[in-house]
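Reading group handout, session on sequence-to-structure problems. Before we discuss, look at one worked example. The prompt was deliberately terse, the way you'd type it at a terminal:

> structure Alpha-amylase family glycosyl hydrolase

The input record follows.
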Amino acid sequence: MRSFAKLSLGVSLALIAASAQAASRPDYVGTLEPFASDAVYFVVTDRFVNGDPSNDHRDQGGKHRTFDIPVPCPDKVDGNIGYLGGDFKGVLNNADYIRKLGFGAVWITPIIDNPDEAFTGSKPISCTSTLTDRGKTGYHGYWGVNFYKLDEHLPSKDLDFAGLTRGLHDANLKVVLDIVGNHGSPAWSMPVKQPQFGQIFDKDGKLIADHQNLPPQQLDPKHNPLHAFYNNIGPVDADKGSIFDGNLAELGDFNQNNPAVMDYLVGAYLQWTAQGVDALRIDTIGWLPHPWWNEFVKRIRAEHPGMFMFGEAFDYNAATIAEHTWPSNANVSVLDFPLRGALSSVFGKEQKGFETLAEPLHLLGGPYANPYELMSFYDNHDMARLDASDAGFIDAHNWLFTARGIPVLYYGSETGFMRSRAEHAGNRAYFGQERVDAAPQSPIFGPLQRISLLRQNTPALQRGLQVTERLQGDQAVFYRVLQHGDTAQTALVLLNKGDAASSFEVTRYLQPGTWRDALGSGSVKVTSGLKADVPAHGVKVYLLDAPVKQKALQAELDKGMADQKARTERLAR
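And the output record:
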């Protein structure tokens, strides 16, 4: 008994000593946001997989049919602006595929009810057009007419939205719901007014708003209650001012000064978030003022404390989109468009050097509340897909899953699906179960899975501070350091985007110790330097599970923590 007591006492003292040691060392943390552990797989639900043909509604719309409406392109790779059958069951059937690919969350497009006909207004659509909607349907989900009702193309008899979230959670996947706050469906320019377009219905199906096919400047909210939901500011083009000053295309633009709009949207989204939503992606956040979003976010988080949200401000000016991240404004993350532009030029056909990425990282002195919580991506559904070779995709993924930020991958990118194609030229083409099943055969798939699973299992790559050793030409060398609580981990990342193997030698910021090869086997004992050969379009990651003691690295990390503190204090004023 005495021996057991001595052993227990010894273990207890050791634990106390370890805790005391951890408490005494400085914190080095990029972010403690829980969502930062999860890379995000983004699907346009209708275009992913048709898991239930019985909800296709192929006869919907009559003479303005809604299913399978090709957009012919000169090169015979057609686009499509109709529904193509993807649904909740298609997503859930492939939950294991997404999880095993290395993702922890699925972002789905809006689930709310959209019009039952193709739109007859706007301008004609071509393979190269943008913000033209004639003949288009609401397959994408962004043309809401009843925000309390599921679009009929998505659920199945045995699978509603709550069932989808339960199933994804059972597969260890979080659910990111795409929401729209600033507009409804296309609302005017129709030759003859169509049902549902420009209309909003409440949870009981009652009509509460109607644009009545009138251009915004002809709305009369003072005398017509059905107009009060909308702004009556006319369209503003680039020659007359910012597009944010007026309507986006012909969409019904919600009146941010009408409290009924806020109440309606908050009520609708609380209905959906209560069914298992883990995070929100906010569409077109830049089209509503900061105070509106501040109130909206507060009301959602009152029911869901700490819920992670990120906004889409389609703007390449970091100073502009950063305003949404400030606590006094929306207090959310944003999709990192400035970095996206740089990623496209580095990993796409231009093949610029890694130095191009240094400035948009904004590791020190930047405008964001926290750059480590930004959503990193290289393309999406609103722009041409990345124009890159297979090797370019592999290089892009090696960066996305090791550098700062939360990675977002657009469906099909694991195979280079529809690379370089714009919105109406195949960007949102149907992926389908056959392509999902064949995806592992793509040369892009294996390297993506390898690096995404590494991030999934490496805390330093998820939330560690980033210290750059070099970003030059085809070589990138940087550290990710997480030192917090019982975790003390440093990742050394070596990236080679060249067409030939490259020898790396690292001495700067390098701490002596035994570094394990995270993507290989064995370890490297380091005294003063580390040498490694990195294959063409390859990556090596070395991990040291020990507190930081290297003085030069400590100094850089201290700068990073001081910068975070200064940002927090500045934005709190």
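Points for discussion. First: The two ends are 60 Å apart (CA to CA). Second: The longest strand covers residues 475-484.
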